[in-house]
Amino acid sequence: MKAIRRFTVRTVLPDVLAPLEELAANLRWSWHQPTLELFRDIAPELWDELGKDPYGLLGEVQPARLAELAADEAFVGRAVALRDELRAYLGAPRWYQGLGSHAPATVAYFSPEFGIADALPQYSGGLGILAGDHLKAASDLGVPIVGVGLFYRAGYFRQAISREGWQLESYPVLDPDGLPMSVLRAPDGTAAQVVLALPDGKALTARIWLLAVGRVPLLLLDTDVPENPEELRSVTDRLYGGGGEHRLLQELLLGIGGARAVGIYARLAGIPEPTVFHTNEGHAGFLGLERIRELVGDGLSFAEALEVVRAGTVFTTHTPVPAGIDRFEAPLVERYFSTELLPGVDAADVLALGAEDYEGGAADTFNMAVMGLRLAQRANGVSLLHGAVSRQMFGALWPGFDSEEVPITSITNGVHPATWTDPRVRALAASKLGTDDATACDWTTDAVTDAELWRLRGELRAQLVADARRRMAAAWEEQNPGVPAPPWYRELLSPEVLTIGFARRVPTYKRLTLMLQDPDRLRALLTDPDRPVQLVVAGKSHPADDGGKRLIQLLVEFSQDPEVRGRIVFLPDYDIGMAQTLYPGCDVWLNNPLRPLEACGTSGMKAALNGSLNLSILDGWWSEFHDEHNGWAIPSADSAGDAAERDALEAAAMYDLIEHQIAPRFYDRGADGVPAAWVADIRHTLATLSPALSAERMVREYVERLYLPAAASETAITSGDYSAARELAAWVARVRGAWPEVHVAHVESGGVDASPHVGEELRVRAFVELGDLGPDDVAVELVHGRPRAGEELGDAHVVPLELESHDLGKPAVYTGSLRFERAGAFGYTVRVVPRNALFASDAELGLVALAG
Ligand SMILES: *Cc1c(COP(=O)(O)O)cnc(C)c1O
């Protein structure tokens, strides 16, 4: 029988235990170990059963137990002390408060998913966990972020594996009353709502859930309200559930509804409205259109409003995989914007923002990433390599500029240490190195001995083995009720064996089954009598992706082979809870994507924070952080003839590394049983990688490199009651109109003969036709570098040229010089670009006039 309705009948807490309510209501507990321990001690079995869920626990614990705790002075004292600590954490000035008054007072951060705690399954993978870590680190640093997302009634799916190895999905429905969140209400008690006008006179209504992530408020929009007809209630049913129109509705709600919700929240909470808007991937891009609508309502034109919105918007792109980018059929988008959805905003202007109207683009397609880039003056990829790949991938939006100059920078992802460092690692740091912040200690001294570090790693491995056995037993019981599990289930994995982990979503480019390329070779590694290896694998395939499910099935089938079973397991239902035990427990964390399709990858970072070593293709973060002592690089077979050959070569390289380097080093034990070389690598990893991989480093970079400049741009462009925006829009129109006339008429050079020497000076005079523009509208530059094949300039440098004269009716004359600093091939050209003080980059308009 299925219940038609469900809710939680909550226990009434005795007054002295009121601090527990306060502690449970703020998700700070998800990264505060003492608070987690306090809740665990209330009812340890229930705690495990509910999966580390303080709020859920308080809903279910029996009154008798609470009465007992209320009489326990020590317990009450702990609760009060932790409550006071939380209040102090929420109130005290932090890093951001030292930045000064130019720092924005409120920053809105939009994401389609947020991975904060196991009890709140509102994420599917890396993008969501990153968003959760961003909020947590922002809270720790005091960054005044407001998070904005959707509340999915069933979140992402739960994964089970059938006896045939096939992925089964289920969608447990969440009970909002059982979660630490409350409806945002006006002072008179009415629930705050956002309403979006839809085609055919319909309307989509959403309420706003408010969550506290430490100091950071998080707003989640929810369409499951009585005001909506049945088919619209389900708009927020699942994360990435439907395609086409369902997805579009979710994104309209996230962007437009989200922007409205932040405004409502700011007014109710009495905080300044955000001036900087950060969108985590393109899904929330419509937020820029809602802000344009507001400005148009205040009397600006679309073009003027666009300049204002661009100034304060930061766009982070997360994937170079085309399938990862949202694209809609343009007529569908047009239908939704030919309504009262955004009064004063023309559907044609909206369509133009998302149009792939560049070389290689598709007609009638609306591309959310392209719109995201056009609505944001500042954009970034999420690792150095991914920044470079994105500049190439989106280069067509800035025609005429080499990819190095495409205005997309990069900020490498980070992970939130307090969430992702195992309590045992933190405890060892606290007891031997003076702080439980394991990212801030010197792990290279003998304050911690090799034996202690090795014992720690053994405990983490044993903890993983126990967790894996428990999960596999529970999964068996679920699939085969009443049938006892086979005996080998009790002996899955060994706490002594070199453990390699691999867990991630299962899109093709991540190559879940690369390890199965040569099954005999893998079998030999797993069953080696002296130096055995064991593999722990997990991952969810998108429900619509049967190819991915087939890969999971291949792995499960292999893991059931009597010869290797017990040495390789596939753990169902990869989630935050599993990850927190899995990463620390693996000696080696494996990642073998098709380079360069992994934008960053964060699981390897979380492993490194716990002293696990990485074995990875040089992609994403690993391509910038790998050195000789923190793990191993699998060489990419870029020159392989086809995909199959590439897989074979890269898999062979991986087997070789495991067999000839990794296993020998792991099993090379001293008299004390400790592998000294391995432990040295662990120390090096903890000491050098963990500070750099921290989400605090990442959030500081976002603040310093993107939020502060965006806030300055926003201040500049809104100044004089938007007169700067009006002038800029008019200037942009004038420059675009005049540009076809702008060209470099000719270039003279002097000072050197045909074969110059290092140290000599090249002088250049350029004659430039500016048409209707003046010298103040442009910059003229000498660009030099090494000519590559096809005469492209590689390694290009830019030297500004000075205006010498600009006589009426004649070309403007620009001059400059440069000294040859190295020998070899040399090439140069002269170009004209539009220049405006309100631009973040000369490439912004994508306009350039090149000599020749
Ligand atoms: C970190 C994490 C991910 C993302 O890992 P990648 O290496 O970026 O693929 C996915 N799922 C969970 C549960 C995670 O904790």
Largest sheet, strands/sense/barrel? 10 strands, mixed
* Coarse morphology: globular
The CATH homologous superfamily of the largest domain is termed Glycogen Phosphorylase B
Alpha-beta content class: alpha/beta
Query: Any idea what the radius of gyration is?
Result: 29 Å
Name of the CATH class of the largest domain: Alpha Beta
Share of residues in helices? 25-40%
Helix count, DSSP H or I runs of 4 or more residues: 26
Q: Which molecules are bound in this entry?
A: pyridoxal-5'-phosphate
CATH topology of the largest domain: Rossmann fold
Rounded average pLDDT: 95
Give the domain tally: 4
For the termini, the CA-CA separation is 78 Å
Corresponding CATH architecture of the largest domain: 3-Layer(aba) Sandwich
Portion of residues in beta strands equals 15-25%
Low-confidence stretches: none
Q: Which terms summarize this structure?
A:
852 residues; Rossmann fold; 39% helix; binds pyridoxal-5'-phosphate
Description of the structure:
The chain has 852 residues and is an alpha/beta fold. It folds into 4 domains: 15-90, no CATH class; 103-161 and 195-413, Glycogen Phosphorylase B (Rossmann fold), CATH 3.40.50; 442-693, Glycogen Phosphorylase B (Rossmann fold); 738-850, Immunoglobulin-like. Helices cover 39% and strands 18% of the residues. The protein contains 26 helices and 30 strands. The strands form 7 sheets. Strands 1, 4, 7, 8, 9, 10, 11, 12, 15 and 16 form a 10-stranded mixed β-sheet that branches. A 6-stranded parallel β-sheet has the order 19-18-17-20-21-22, sandwiched between helices. The radius of gyration is 29 Å and the shape is globular. The termini are far apart. The mean pLDDT is 95. Pfam families: DUF3417 (PF11897), Phosphorylase (PF00343).
